[in-house]
User: Which sequence fits this backbone?
């Protein structure tokens, strides 16, 4: 974990965040200045994969400001030598012009004022075609947005600006947008990959709405940081440097105070607004947390709408959503207030300096030190210095909102996830090897300290059906979920054909384990698409065979479009039994040597259950089947039964062996069912 993230992990939990926004994982939200700097360094790492696009953008910025330098000088030509009709000596000698104007002045020297005007206008027309009035104009990609974090983040996804208009400005804007999109795409991809690899213990605590908010609305902040710390300062340095060079070369000691007036505004702006930086971070964090809480209330309310309606909880659900929405709006209002306070301070600071600057300019004209044509030149240059100083002075304060979002992004990226590579790479057992699954003194504790399994040991082989039974909360599902490494032992170890699961690549292991969850997890898509999650290249014949074994083929064929029929959200258009059979068919289609079924027959009628269990026993003689179940009819024909109680295996054996013990826990369990 990066050093900045380790520091954040050591901070005390913010109880207000946990209580107000239902956070269970991300509860340490305080950011100090050094934490912000650490986040900025990490964000800049996303520029390296886009280095060519970044270099092209940087080159265009330099080109735009270079092409924009002559623009005000042609306005001086129009005023002094067109309107005021001052003659141009050969080569422009004796006139206050920079060296890059010498060629034009030499070409028009001796011409009458109208010819000089026409030539200057022609050059200006060409320059406007390519760059417009560059420097003092801004071409932006922003669309209409609201005041809340979510809608403003949509603009950050395709953020872009150019200091020029015209053809070059349009090209520059397109590159800027593309760069923002690529950085955001990389961040979103990494964030989604990380969130999808969280262990089940974290996924059970992670709020879906919060995860979506981080991917959709927090991720674009990384591109904003990259721009603010690289290209924006580059544009500022080029602008200030070019104008300083021209002012020094042309006016010498006439107006050097303009430079000092403009640059001194930077320090005062930083001094005046820096006390608001911490507040801005806190308010932005609260705004984002409240926004994700609103998204979560919306997602959970709609996902569980049937339960809410059936239990008469609609009014309560509406009130919860309304409260979350009001809190989100309140935090957005506070964020706007802080932003406007910073804006007010910066504007008033620069109003003082702008007044001083214009006093210097117009005093010089009155005294005859400057001509009327120098006015647009000096005003443009000073305005660039003034605007640049203002922007540079606000970089730190403006990035506090992005820092709060980046903290949320990197918390998710740094949070515990399933390892992508094993401790010691070992090949998974081959299909030709005799399959043997072995638990050796396995313990498991949940993060809250609950002991789910204790000293669990057993062995299972290919062609066996192992039933895991016991009262609710005994640890049956926990045991089953350890086989494909959804959960990993706190103590002890699990081996597959003699190889520790920790040494087997997780993806390779899961290709050999088909797991059918107790909660039916179906996509809002076609029947075929749901089945092909297990085997993307499955043929219709293979899907029919799997559905036949699971007892799902009849209802699939009865649907309007068969396998290409679309089911509702989460399989909502199917009955519970149909969803269960479809989930089992998907597990069978996987053709994995290990099949784990968590309560596979809970929603099936007795006839369908008997047909399913009989088909499973005969469909693949080499497969190891692990069945977690309560119903006697599901487990009595298993080759071996593990009876769990309070996380421990208290009895093992076949149904007949366990029933032969009159005082056994399994027999009491069966008797209660009877």
Assistant:
């Amino acid at each position: 974990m990066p050093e900045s993230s380790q520091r954040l992990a050591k901070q005390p939990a913010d109880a207000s965040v946990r209580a107000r926004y239902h956070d269970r994982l991300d509860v340490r939200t305080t950011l100090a200045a050094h934490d912000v700097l650490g986040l900025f360094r990490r964000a800049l790492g996303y520029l390296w994969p886009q280095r060519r696009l970044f270099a092209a953008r940087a080159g265009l910025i330099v080109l735009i400001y270079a092409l924009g330098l002559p623009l005000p000088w042609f306005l001086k030509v129009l005023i002094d030598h067109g309107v005021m009709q001052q003659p141009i000596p050969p080569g422009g000698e004796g006139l206050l012009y920079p060296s890059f104007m010498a060629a034009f002045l030499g070409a028009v020297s001796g011409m009458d004022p109208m010819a000089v005007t026409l030539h200057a206008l022609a050059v200006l027309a060409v320059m406007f075609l390519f760059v417009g009035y560059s420097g003092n104009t801004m071409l932006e990609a922003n669309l209409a947005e609201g005041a809340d974090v979510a809608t403003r983040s949509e603009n950050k996804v395709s953020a872009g600006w150019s200091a020029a208009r015209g053809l070059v400005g349009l090209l520059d804007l397109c590159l800027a947008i593309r760069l923002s999109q690529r950085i955001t795409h990389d961040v979103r991809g990494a964030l989604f990959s990380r969130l999808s690899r969280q262990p089940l213990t974290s996924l059970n605590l992670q709020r879906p709405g919060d995860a979506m908010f981080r991917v959709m609305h927090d991720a674009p902040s990384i591109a904003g940081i990259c721009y603010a710390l690289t290209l924006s300062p580059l544009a500022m340095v080029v602008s200030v440097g070019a104008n300083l060079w021209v002012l020094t070369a042309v006016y010498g000691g006439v107006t050097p105070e303009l430079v000092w007036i403009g640059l001194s505004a930077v320090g005062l702006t930083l001094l005046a607004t820096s006390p608001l930086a911490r507040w801005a971070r806190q308010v932005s964090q609260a705004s984002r947390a409240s926004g994700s809480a609103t998204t979560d209330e919306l997602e959970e309310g709609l996902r569980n709408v049937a339960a809410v309606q059936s239990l008469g909880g609609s009014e309560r659900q509406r009130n919860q959503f309304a409260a979350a929405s009001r809190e989100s709006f309140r935090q957005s209002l506070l964020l706007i207030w802080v932003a406007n306070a910073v804006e007010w301070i910066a504007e008033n600071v620069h109003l003082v300096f702008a007044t001083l600057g214009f006093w210097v300019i117009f005093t010089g004209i009155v005294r005859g030190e400057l001509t009327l044509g120098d006015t647009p030149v000096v005003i443009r240059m000073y305005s660039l210095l003034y605007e640049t100083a203002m922007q540079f002075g606000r970089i730190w304060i403006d990035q506090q909102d992005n820092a709060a979002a980046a903290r949320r992004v990197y918390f998710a990226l740094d949070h515990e996830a399933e390892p992508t590579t094993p401790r010691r790479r070992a090949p998974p057992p081959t299909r030709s090897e005799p399959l043997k699954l072995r638990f050796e003194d396995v313990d498991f504790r949940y993060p809250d300290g609950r002991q789910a399994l204790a000293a669990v040991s057993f062995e299972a082989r290919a062609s066996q059906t192992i039933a895991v039974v016991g009262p609710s909360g005994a640890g049956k599902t926990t045991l089953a979920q350890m086989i494909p490494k959804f959960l990993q032992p706190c103590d002890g170890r699990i081996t597959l054909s003699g190889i520790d699961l920790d040494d087997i690549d997780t993806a390779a292991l899961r290709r050999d384990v088909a797991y059918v969850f107790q909660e039916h997890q179906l996509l809002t898509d076609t029947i075929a698409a749901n089945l092909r999650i297990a085997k993307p290249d499955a043929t219709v014949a293979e899907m029919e065979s799997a559905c036949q074994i699971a007892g799902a083929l009849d209802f699939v064929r009865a649907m309007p479009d068969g396998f290409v029929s679309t089911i509702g959200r989460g399989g909502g258009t199917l009955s519970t039994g149909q969803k269960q059979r479809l989930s089992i068919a998907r597990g069978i289609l996987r053709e994995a040597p290990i099949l784990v079924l968590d309560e596979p027959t809970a929603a099936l009628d007795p006839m369908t259950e008997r047909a399913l269990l009989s088909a499973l026993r005969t469909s693949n003689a080499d497969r190891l089947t692990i069945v977690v179940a309560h119903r006697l009819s599901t487990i009595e024909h298993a080759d071996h039964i593990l009876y769990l109680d309070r996380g421990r295996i208290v009895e093992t054996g076949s149904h007949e062996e366990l029933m032969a013990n009159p005082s056994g826990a399994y027999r009491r369990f069966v008797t209660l069912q009877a």
